[in-house]
Amino acid sequence: MDRSLPPSPNEAIKANSRYLRGTIADGLTRVETGALSDDDQQLTKFHGIYLQDDRDLRAERGRKKMEKAFSFMARLRVPGGVLTPAQWLAAETIARERGNGTLRLTTRQTIQFHGIIKSNLRLAISGLNDAMLDTIAACGDVNRNVIATANPWESRGHAEVAALAQAIGTHLLPKSRAWHEIWIDGEQHTGGEEEDEPIYGRTYMPRKFKIAVALPPHNDVDVFAHDLGFIAIREGDRVAGYNVVVGGGMGMTHGEPDTFPRTGDVIGFCRPDQVVDIAEKVVTIQRDSGNRSDRKHARLKYTIERIGLPAFCMELERRLGYSLSPAQDFAFTDNGDRLGWAHGDDGALHYTLFVENGRVRDLPDRQLLSGLHAIAELGVGRFIITANQNLVIADITPQQKRAVGELLRAHGIDAPVSGLRRNSIACVALPTCGLALAESERYLPSLVARLEDQLEQLGLAQDDITIRMTGCPNGCARPYLAEIALVGRAPGLYHLYLGGAFNGTRLNKLYRKDVDGDAIIAALSPLLREYAGQRRDGERFGDYAIRAGHVRPTTAGNTFHDDLAPELRS
Amino acid sequence: MPGLPMLPETAPFPAEQITALNRIMSATNAEQRTWLSGFLSGYQAANAPQPAAAAAPARRAPLTILFATESGNAESLADVARKAASKLGFAARVLDMADATPAQVAAAQNLLVIASTWGEGDPPQRAIDFHAALMAEDAPRFDGVRYAVLALGDRAYAKFCETGRLFDERFAALGGTRVADRIECDLDYDVAANAWLGGTLTQLQAGLGEPDAGAAVIHVDFARAPLEASAYNRTRPFEAEITERIKLSGSRSTSETWHVEVSLAGSGIVYEPGDSLGFLPSNDPALVDAVLMATGLSGDAALRAALSERFDITTLTRKQVADYARLIGDASLAEDVAFADGRQVIDLLSAAPHGLSAEQLTSLLRPLPPRYYSVASSLKTVPDEAHLLVAAVRYETHGRARSGVASVDLADRRNAGERLKVFVKPNLHFRLPTDPQRPIIMIGPGTGVAPFRAFMQERDAVGARGKSWLVFGHRHYTHDFLYQLEWQDLLKRGVLSRLDVAFSRDQPEKRYVQHALWDARRDLHAWVQDGAVIYVCGDANAMAKDVHATLQRIVGDQALDALRREGRYLRDVY
Ligand code: SRM
Ligand SMILES: Cc1cc2nc3c(=O)[nH]c(=O)nc-3n(C[C@H](O)[C@H](O)[C@H](O)COP(=O)(O)OP(=O)(O)OC[C@H]3O[C@@H](n4cnc5c(N)ncnc54)[C@H](O)[C@@H]3O)c2cc1C
Ligand SMILES: Cc1cc2nc3c(=O)[nH]c(=O)nc-3n(C[C@H](O)[C@H](O)[C@H](O)COP(=O)(O)O)c2cc1C
Ligand code: SF4
């Protein structure tokens, strides 16, 4: 990395934090404000906690002689997204009693709680801890929640990838006891000095670090979107090993072409027992050579762009002390979820529930919160959150099937949805996300509804087409891997991207700039009409958009901003 | 000669004259002595300076004016009574029940009692000790005490003038002589009270018979600071312009609290932190119309004006039900005076609609009483301004949506630029300590925080060094944290030393200020040891009681009583 530049402010904050303690505990005792000090706000992220404010209320606050409407977002760490019904119930209780009454399933297979005010924060976190849940390292410059394909119907394969996600996550967990001290014991230790972070060191990672494990043929985790990915390669029904993928990432910044989404590179194959070791070594390479001056270029994808893939691989093998075998063949069919009932190879039943944008709440016609509460109370097997913000109710016995089915129906949450809607993802954005430039979760459903009329007429109502929206270019919904993507620019305005691959292997390309709702419909309807008429057998919308020449294919992250139509170049 | 009265050494004569006079006296018979006293008093009258003694009795009779007050009305009446009594030649002294014991009072010859009723028929808190002692088994006898009671109250309350009634009955039971029937005054007490005072004083005076020689003449005159802080009062309010009006509660709040700033410019009105501002509201025009409609008087413009400005068209008392029943000759309604409970005038009129004349209607109604709002500012910080913190009262009873007359008048119908009829209502018993070093603990949830904003502005302005501790509470931290930014600033600058909060609806388990106090009990104890004054302001029904009970648990019952007597436990609750 460029040593001449000064380290970013976050580096000093981490270094002086006594292993992530800072003055958080003291800040929690200050009742006059719902916020924490700026430095502590950076540190709580390492504990899975973000200070936010209700942006819907910003305008009125000052005049009312009140500070911003602060509250906290807390994010669970749930490797592989697997919860017990008891844990689900505990989470729901916390959301009702300490949060805003909703649960938010995320694109990294976990749950976010929103609207927890300071006086409830410790109680919320310790309440989760009582249910054997934690928020450690769910955010911050560390390895994040490790995600894994959610397909319990392949019992053996899923068991292996879930266990692997668990193992990697545990191995890369920060060793600091700060989280327990601050949120559970409530004690304020001056200590921490004697502690040590064998893997991370006292300044942790230059930036967040993300790992995903995929079990083909499903790429529900978008394995190419993460700093590090593992693709399970199977012989028969056992996992023989994993292809290693490095340097993926979504985030970019508008108007800064040297920031771009990037699909990871497959660099080889390893045995299952080597995965954790490889993960650790990749982490340490990024720890040592990631950019600590400019957080906008601090992800592994930029390190690899800078030093080059070969150099990176050499360094990896040097640290491993052995080299990877050649990558093996694999094929992905899709990056979405298969909704509804599935029969497991072990006789168990599984129901994949569509949770629009991951928001679990009770609406008059769709009582998700109550419905899932009732199902969890049956003590049914496991609740597995998918990387598409949906939920798999897994390991249902044939005897329980009727009961579960009736509860789903009774709460109106099993209604079929269109092919576009069931393949839609929206990030949280307003009102809680501090970085949002435009609406997303609160807007996409209605936009999809407008397109559905069209699709109905064109006979495409049941065709799977991926559409993803984010309120800013950070890419939390992995928009750049969708066939249709809308990325927020300003209130009501979005960039429209097309041409992503249905199976998450190809990035999309900018098609229209700064379009509002009407312009989006106007731009998409003719394309959809064409597609309905001219698509080849089984041809996906994203592929068609390229064949028809509406956009050029993006073959690599560093060409994401190239090959644009003239009027789009700037 | 033994048995005969002799002049004491203390008599105002030189020693030899005392011996001489005693010699002469001892030689006189009863008849000579009576003549002599008559001669002397005549001689006195003849040579006394005019006019004082002209109307005056042979000598100034002692009169004790005892008052029990919470918000000062009884106190100001006591002052009025003192002036009148002095004119009549009484040697009047005004005594606050807070500083009096029954034994002291039982020694008085002539006693005038002015007492208000609070809570749900309770005596004013500062009169609690006296009240208890008087009701106790071992209360002193009042034989020979000639007394009369003036009771202040509000007919809107079930136990109207309860305290005055109890005192009246108790004095009689203890042997006192009632010289005039008790008067029970509603909120519009001025005229009635003054008339009664005049009459009663003359009765007391007339009844003054042969002075018994032993009686000590007390020439004490506790002149007190005039209570009206300015020329303006409830009958002659100042028209103050609204300069600022902000709804402080967040748009998602379940409550509705307004910050209202009025200009006192040109009025010369001064107030002290702790005082309240009286406000003369107007009634809800819609309700006025409904009342006119129900009584078939819609046409009467003059009446409409009167109803909106001068008459209380909401409060319904059992007495009014009875009066109305009689008026319209409705026997069954007369049976059912309890109809009044929880209902309002409009309910009565629409339950038994009946055409009325304007006179009949107004004779049913009582005058519209002013409402009081603790001043939330200090003149030292905002000269010529008074800030108010007003909670809009809205609720539903008997299927009708009700809205508080004054609070909703301010919340819904008054805009910046318009004028409010206001006057100052001093509260001498809710003041910052004179010693700026003295620590203060301010317990004020909801609008109870208003006077403490004034306290803080004052202490900030004068640079007072004393520690200050605010305990605030409301429903939701995010939407109801009144003046949050100001408290933050005061804390940062050290004017406010400590803040504790309790928001009841932020979590499943309800949390109120008394819980915050209990959590901080050790520190609270320490502050009290350091001489802190404890202030409580806000809701009287639940909050003040719970806080009181909690303070008792923390500092101890006796200790808390002691603090109250020392003036270190002050409450302004409503
Ligand atoms: C909840 C979630 C989106 C969702 O609707 O599910 C989310 C929400 C937020 N993301 Fe994200 N990100 C979420 C998955 C992602 C993903 C997708 C993934 O990881 O598979 C990405 C793209 C992949 C990547 O990292 O490149 C992603 C890239 C970002 C970035 C850009 C990072 C970058 O280096 O480019 C930011 C901004 C930052 O980190 O500075 C960000 C920041 C945020 C924050 C915390 C905003 C902030 O930093 O203040 C958002 C909180 C909003 C809110 O109110 O809840 N989020 N974020 C996802 C939670 C994942 C989890 O459980 O851990
Ligand atoms: C010394 C003093 C200081 C005060 N300071 C303040 C202050 O700073 N801020 C402030 O907001 N108020 C303050 N008050 C109270 C204020 O004076 C008024 O009493 C209050 O605003 C209500 O007046 P209103 O005319 O709006 O309501 P009104 O028309 O007088 O109606 C109030 C009456 O309605 C009834 N009522 C109210 N709620 C309900 C319910 N939920 N269910 C059934 N019946 C109900 C009760 O009988 C209550 O007495 C103070 C009072 C006093 C005596
Ligand atoms: C909170 C509160 C409670 C009251 N309770 C009663 C009561 O129970 N009975 C009554 O007759 N008057 C009651 N009143 C009316 C007062 O007695 C009346 O306002 C009186 O004028 C106050 O006189 P003071 O200022 O001397 O205390 C109450 C007034 C308030 C503000
Ligand atoms: S993509 Fe942007 S707006 Fe959406 S959640 Fe992520 S950071 Fe917020």
Number of strands of chain A: 20
Helical coverage of chain A, percent range: 25-40%
Distance between the termini of chain B: 65 Å
**Largest interface, counted by CB within 8 Å of the partner chain's CB:** A-B, 24 and 27 residues
Major sheet of chain A: size, sense and barrel closure? 5 strands, antiparallel
Characterization of this structure:
The complex is a heterodimer of chains A (570) and B (574). With 570 residues, chain A is of the alpha+beta class. Helices cover 31% and strands 17% of the residues of chain A. The longest helix of chain A is centred in the C-terminal third of the chain and has 18 residues, at 517-534. The mean pLDDT of chain A is 96. By secondary structure, chain B is of the alpha/beta class. In chain B, 37% of the residues lie in helices and 20% in strands. The model of chain B is unreliable at 49-57 and 210-229 (pLDDT under 50). The A-B interface holds A 31-34, 54, 57, 60-67, 69-71, 97-98, 117-120, 123 and B 246-252, 259, 477-479, 481-488, 491, 499-501, 503, 506-508. The complex binds siroheme, flavin-adenine dinucleotide (FAD), flavin mononucleotide and iron/sulfur cluster. Siroheme binds next to strand 1 and strand 2 of chain A.
Give me some keywords for this one:
heterodimer, A: about 575 residues, alpha+beta, 17 helices, 20 strands, B: alpha/beta, 6-stranded parallel beta sheet, 6-stranded antiparallel beta sheet, 21 strands, binds siroheme, binds flavin mononucleotide
What's the short version?
The complex is a heterodimer of chains A (570) and B (574). Chain A is an alpha+beta fold and 570 residues long.
Please outline the helices and strands:
The complex is a heterodimer of chains A (570) and B (574).
Chain A: H1 9-15, H2 24-28, H3 38-44, E1 49-53, H4 58-61, E2 70-75, E3 82-83, H5 85-98, E4 103-105, E5 111-116, H6 118-130, E6 147-148, H7 155-171, H8 178-185, E7 211-214, E8 228-235, E9 238-246, E10 265-270, H9 275-289, H10 300-307, H11 309-320, E11 340-343, E12 349-353, E13 359-360, H12 368-377, E14 382-385, E15 391-396, H13 398-410, H14 419-422, E16 424-426, H15 444-458, E17 467-470, E18 484-490, E19 493-498, E20 509-515, H16 517-534, H17 541-547
Parallel strand pairs in A: 6-7, 7-8, 16-17, 17-18
Antiparallel strand pairs in A: 1-2, 2-5, 3-14, 4-5, 4-13, 8-9, 9-10, 11-12, 12-15, 14-15, 18-19, 19-20
Helix pairs in contact in A: 5-6, 5-12, 7-9, 9-11, 12-13, 15-16
Chain B: H1 15-26, H2 30-47, H3 52-55, E1 62-68, H4 73-87, E2 91-96, H5 102-106, E3 110-116, H6 128-135, E4 146-152, H7 162-173, E5 177-178, E6 183-185, H8 190-206, E7 238-247, E8 257-263, E9 276-280, H9 285-294, H10 301-309, E10 311-312, H11 318-328, H12 331-335, H13 345-351, H14 358-364, E11 366-367, E12 371-374, E13 385-391, E14 394-397, E15 400-403, H15 405-412, E16 419-425, E17 440-443, H16 450-462, E18 468-474, H17 477-480, H18 484-492, E19 498-503, H19 513-519, H20 521-529, E20 533-538, H21 543-555, H22 557-566, E21 569-573
Bound molecules: siroheme (SRM), flavin-adenine dinucleotide, flavin mononucleotide (FMN) and iron/sulfur cluster.
The site of siroheme (SRM) has 33 residues of chain A, from strand 1 and strand 2.
